[in-house]
């Protein structure tokens, strides 16, 4: 691997690159190695902000504009490479792939989890899972399950980022401050400067429901504070039920519900009814308690009720590490969302039975293939279940897996396609530097070929 | 490789061949004229007594894109009834009303279809739609970009922008989304719903923009025509599913004057409101208007009994329809100042008056429109029923006694209210070949598809001639795609990757300046990232982009 380096830089082919090529051909620019790339999509959270300006200087990336702390940390991480390893010893890629193939040939029920990859990666994983009778789940499988169960059990009325940016006049954040997982949410779609339809974004009303939330980003540019209704999100169902009752015009005798004064909820219900385009925002990952999918259903039902008065929509933040991408590709290729097994040759979906934790705890699988090409999320470790890790090279494992193959990151090391948190918008992400690391798609295809 | 199909009865309406016994020669994926005697035939198929047609073309089927995938996610219980196992050649998946992408490709091919067109691709969702279509094997595909509810266009209408600028924008969208035609869904209505307007008639102004559906339809149809895009504006009109909407449909036809227009799933727009239940067939009036106006073509969107799921861009209608959701779950989504989508499951029941009459209305439209070149066979898959019901539908059209038998099974009042008993028409094989092959190809501008003349791509279906047309059309004996045998006796024997068809009308590229300003200010995606580049469809070399010529631009 030593002979390979990041130093030679090639621009991806697109219209921006072509324009730049024209500039580069002018003599005075020729000596510069590169110019900053504009409109770069960021793969490190599912907001997929695509306005970053990134400069590649001899393989080291610098975020020059529009980087959030997360993007800067990830893009600017000095490139590292390492060799594949089998049981801790360096190995060639061919040997590592052959070793994985032999493990899969012997396996009765492999689990493909993590699934932090792009469309091409998922397109490669699915046929392999089919052929090996494997099970598919994502590292954020619990959140995905809550989200899809709400869709499968009741459905929803939902919206997307550009609608919020131009239309929303009331935003209610339920159990999440958004900012931790999606750092530029407020900058991009809440306190944006321009908006198609009035009122001005700075006049948007912000409400938080929950506890221990960072509500500072909800303060308007002119200093208006958001309304924060402090409550235990485990009691959310009661609060929402009360609001729905009020919306139906029923009177309430109780003074407090789940510790919140009824009068506060009455005011909130009135504000919701009088919004022009209200949005209820939640993150299935943050609603982390038993049966939260039912609470999400209740939130969806509240949104539907509000549409008897005005327009209201929900936004379920789909989760990072390619979870929306993995869910979408798995759904169109197999018919089912994640937590699907090919154990019987055809796909079977069971969101409880096929959870990574449960399968490992019950030793219902005999190999774990863990894929993480965006973040350094480590796999769960269970004694006697061999693990194959296809992950970013800087991943710090607590325990050496059977096989480790370092992989490239889509949108940094190679081109790819990813889905945004709202599930509708897919973007092409770009190679920003030359990398000797293979993509997940390449490795998985090689494993498939070696079977 | 030279292939000879010997002695089949050829139905090739584009070349006016009506059941003549002929040999067909395939060379290098194309149909060729009879080669010289000394040329060696590499492979012969004896297909005497067999019926030969070009591969079927579905002009309106929801096979890919956001709403279809949401519908798939929503319906594990439907997939469970139709699991498909992996074989050494084919992928695993599931079928029935929302097949997974590989299974959709296989099932179309097994039915003798070789091209499918996704009719409602939101520009912002184009990347996903094309990714799903790329994962739909064997068949060719293409998509219609959905316009008429996007804020950029509505703003231009409100500002009374010149038709030329509208044309440039429409052309830019076709390029940026790699599409072959333009679709409009509930013109202005999806946007109006975001402003809390719950209905929008043809002449009702949009609450924010003040434009009317009539204006949107006319200017979009004009743009499509002036750009020389072969397929006319593909219209899903106002008031879908509302009793009495036949008036809107007739007014829409009237409003277009001589502009070419394609009215899609017209069955859902042919409802009158007479009788005790205020629901009756408007089919005779619609058929009469279509017969009278040669600028109009339609596809039917036939309702077939059973469980299905409706997936539509028309949030205004889907929100209204959610009260009928069966089972009771549904979703609606406002999307990106672009359009929307709504998914509502339906169970069409033959004993239900409304459903039974919907079924009859669809058949009436098929049978009362005289010119099969202007009425295409669709169920608006999956909205009226899954595409796998086509063979049954063909039998209903070709076999009057079968139709009468089925009519006797449905809700009595509906049967009495329908005009079907008085219609004797039976479609001929030639007419079926027109409506499922020749006419859709001609309408879409696919010069090398939908026919069997020299120069055509060798997409060929060979059927055993059977009295039971449902059996005949369900399982062709051979299906060739671009000259390769892909299906034999209902079995997939080879997987190929079909082409993606598109058009590239000329336009003034300075429109990008105002688009860039708009995207920078109001969108959450940069203009450059919004555009779907041809390279993305060509993928790793497996995809093919087939660009079809536009007519020489005609200016008004």
Layout of SSEs?
The complex is a heterodimer of chains A (451) and B (556).
Chain A: H1 15-24, H2 27-30, E1 37-40, E2 52-57, E3 60-65, H3 69-75, E4 85-86, E5 89-90, H4 93-106, E6 110-116, H5 119-132, E7 135-136, H6 141-153, E8 155-158, H7 161-167, E9 170-174, H8 185-190, E10 205-210, E11 227-230, H9 236-247, E12 256-257, E13 260-261, H10 262-274, E14 277-282, H11 292-306, E15 311-316, H12 323-334, E16 340-341, E17 348-349, H13 356-361, E18 367-372, E19 387-391, E20 403-406, E21 416-419, E22 426-429, H14 440-450
Parallel strand pairs in A: 6-7, 6-18, 9-10, 9-14, 10-11, 14-15, 18-19, 19-20
Antiparallel strand pairs in A: 1-2, 2-3, 4-5, 4-20, 7-16, 12-13, 16-17, 21-22
Helix pairs in contact in A: 4-14, 5-12, 5-14, 6-11, 9-10, 9-11
Chain B: E1 2-12, E2 17-27, E3 30-32, E4 43-46, E5 50-54, E6 56-58, H1 66-74, H2 76-79, E7 83-84, E8 93-94, H3 101-110, E9 113-121, H4 126-134, E10 140-147, H5 151-158, H6 163-177, E11 181-185, H7 189-194, H8 213-227, E12 233-236, H9 246-255, E13 261-263, E14 271-272, E15 280-281, H10 283-292, E16 296-299, E17 306-312, H11 315-321, E18 330-335, E19 339-348, H12 353-368, E20 375-376, H13 390-398, H14 400-409, H15 412-417, H16 429-444, E21 460-464, H17 469-474, E22 478-481, E23 484-488, E24 491-492, E25 499-503, H18 511-522, H19 527-530, H20 534-538, E26 544-548
Parallel strand pairs in B: 1-4, 1-5, 6-9, 9-10, 10-11, 10-25, 11-12, 12-13, 13-16, 16-20, 25-26
Antiparallel strand pairs in B: 1-2, 2-3, 5-21, 7-8, 14-15, 17-19, 18-19, 21-22, 22-23, 23-24
Short description:
Chain A is α/β, with parallel strands linked by helices and 451 residues long. Chain A folds into two domains: 85-141 and 321-424 and 436-450, 3-Layer(aba) Sandwich (Rossmann fold), CATH 3.40.50; 145-316, 3-Layer(aba) Sandwich (Dimethylsulfoxide Reductase, domain 2).
């Amino acid at each position: 691997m030593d002979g390979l380096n990041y130093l030679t830089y090639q621009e991806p082919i697109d219209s921006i690159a072509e324009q730049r090529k024209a500039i580069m051909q002018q003599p005075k620019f020729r000596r510069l190695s590169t110019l900053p790339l504009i409109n770069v999509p960021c793969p490190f959270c599912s907001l997929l902000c695509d306005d970053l300006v990134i400069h590649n200087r001899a393989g080291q990336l610098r975020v020059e504009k529009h980087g959030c702390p997360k993007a800067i940390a990830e893009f600017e991480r000095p490139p590292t490479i390492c060799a594949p390893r089998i049981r801790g010893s360096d190995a060639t890629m061919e040997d590592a792939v052959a070793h994985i193939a032999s493990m899969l040939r012997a396996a009765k029920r492999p689990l493909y989890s993590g699934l932090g990859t792009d469309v091409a990666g998922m397109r490669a994983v699915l046929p392999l899972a089919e052929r090996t009778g494997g099970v598919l789940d994502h590292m954020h499988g619990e959140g995905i399950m809550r989200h899809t169960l709400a869709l499968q059990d009741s459905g929803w009325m939902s919206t997307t980022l550009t609608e919020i940016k131009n239309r929303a006049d009331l935003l209610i954040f339920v159990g999440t401050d958004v900012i931790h997982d999606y750092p530029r949410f407020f900058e991009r779609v809440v306190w944006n400067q321009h908006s198609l339809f009035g009122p001005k974004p700075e006049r948007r009303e912000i409400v938080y429901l929950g506890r221990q939330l960072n509500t500072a980003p909800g303060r308007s540019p002119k200093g208006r504070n958001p309304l924060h209704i402090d409550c235990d999100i485990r009691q959310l169902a009661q609060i929402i039920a009360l609001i729905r009752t009020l919306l139906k015009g029923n009177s309430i005798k109780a003074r407090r519900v789940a510790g919140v004064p009824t009068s506060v909820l009455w005011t909130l219900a009135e504000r919701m009814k009088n919004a022009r385009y209200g949005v209820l925002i939640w993150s299935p990952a943050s609603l982390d308690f038993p049966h939260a999918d039912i609470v999400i259903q209740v939130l969806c039902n509240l949104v539907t009720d509000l549409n008897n008065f005005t327009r209201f929509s929900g936004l379920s933040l789909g989760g990072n590490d390619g979870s929306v991408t993995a869910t979408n590709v798995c759904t169109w290729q197999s018919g089912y969302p994640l937590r699907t097994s090919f154990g019987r040759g055809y796909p079977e979906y069971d969101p409880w039975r096929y959870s990574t934790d449960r399968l490992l705890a019950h030793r219902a699988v005999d190999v774990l293939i863990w894929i993480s090409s965006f973040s350094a999320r480590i796999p769960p470790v269970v004694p006697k279940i061999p693990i194959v890790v296809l992950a970013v090279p800087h991943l710090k494992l607590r325990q050496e897996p059977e096989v480790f193959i370092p992989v490239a990151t889509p949108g940094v090391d190679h081109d790819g396609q990813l889905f945004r948190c709202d599930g509708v918008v897919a973007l092409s992400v770009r190679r920003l530097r030359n990398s000797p690391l293979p993509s997940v798609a390449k490795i998985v295809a090689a494993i498939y070929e070696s079977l | 490789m030279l292939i000879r199909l010997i002695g089949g009865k050829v139905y090739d309406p584009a070349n006016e061949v009506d059941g003549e016994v002929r040999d067909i020669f395939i060379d290098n994926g194309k149909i060729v004229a009879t080669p010289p005697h000394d040329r060696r035939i590499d492979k012969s198929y004896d297909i005497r007594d067999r019926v030969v047609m070009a591969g079927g073309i579905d002009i309106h089927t929801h096979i890919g894109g956001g709403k279809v995938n949401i519908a798939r996610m929503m319906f594990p219980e439907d997939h469970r009834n139709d699991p498909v196992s992996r074989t050494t050649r084919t992928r695993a998946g599931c079928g029935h009303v929302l097949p997974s992408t590989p299974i959709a490709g296989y099932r179309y091919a097994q039915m003798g279809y070789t091209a499918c067109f996704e009719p409602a691709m939101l520009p912002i969702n184009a990347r996903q739609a094309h990714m799903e279509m790329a994962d739909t094997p064997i068949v060719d595909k293409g998509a219609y970009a959905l316009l008429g509810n996007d804020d950029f266009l509505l703003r231009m209408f409100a500002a009374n922008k010149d038709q030329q600028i509208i044309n440039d924008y429409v052309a830019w969208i076709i390029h940026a989304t790699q599409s072959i035609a333009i679709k409009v869904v509930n013109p202005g209505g999806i946007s109006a719903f975001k402003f809390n307007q719950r209905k929008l008639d043809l002449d009702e102004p949009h609450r924010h923009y003040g434009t009317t559906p009539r204006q949107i339809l006319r200017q979009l149809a004009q743009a499509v025509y002036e750009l020389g895009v072969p397929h006319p504006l593909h219209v899903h009109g106002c008031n879908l599913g509302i009793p009495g909407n036949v008036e809107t449909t007739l007014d829409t036809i009237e409003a277009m004057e001589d502009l070419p227009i394609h009215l899609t799933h017209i069955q859902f727009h042919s409802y009158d409101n007479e009788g005790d239940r205020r629901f009756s067939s408007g089919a005779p009036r619609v058929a009469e208007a279509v017969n009278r106006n040669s600028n109009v073509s339609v596809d039917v969107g036939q309702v077939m009994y059973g469980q299905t799921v409706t997936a539509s861009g028309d949030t205004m209608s889907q929100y209204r329809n959610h009260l009928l959701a069966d089972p009771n779950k549904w979703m609606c989504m406002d999307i990106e100042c672009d359009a929307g989508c709504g998914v509502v499951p339906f169970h069409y029941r033959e004993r239900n008056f409304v459903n039974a009459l919907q079924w009859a209305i669809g058949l009436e439209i098929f049978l009362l429109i005289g010119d099969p070149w202007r009425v295409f066979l669709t169920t608006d898959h999956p909205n009226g029923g899954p595409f796998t019901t086509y063979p049954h539908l063909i039998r209903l059209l070709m076999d009057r006694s079968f139709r009468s038998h089925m009519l006797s099974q449905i809700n009595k009042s509906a049967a009495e209210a329908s005009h079907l008993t008085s219609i004797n028409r039976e479609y001929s094989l030639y007419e079926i070949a027109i409506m499922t092959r020749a006419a859709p190809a001609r309408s879409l501008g696919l010069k090398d598809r939908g026919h069997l003349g020299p120069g055509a791509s060798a997409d060929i279906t060979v059927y055993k001639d059977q009295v039971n047309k449902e059996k005949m059309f369900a399982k062709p004996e051979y299906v060739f795609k671009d000259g390769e045998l892909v299906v034999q006796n209902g079995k997939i024997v080879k997987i190929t990757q079909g082409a993606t068809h598109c058009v590239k009308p000329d336009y003034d590229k300075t429109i990008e300046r105002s688009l860039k300003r708009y995207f920078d200010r109001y969108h959450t995606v940069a203009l450059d990232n919004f555009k779907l580049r041809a390279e993305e469809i060509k993928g790793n070399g497996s995809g093919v982009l087939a660009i079809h010529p536009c007519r020489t631009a005609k200016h008004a």
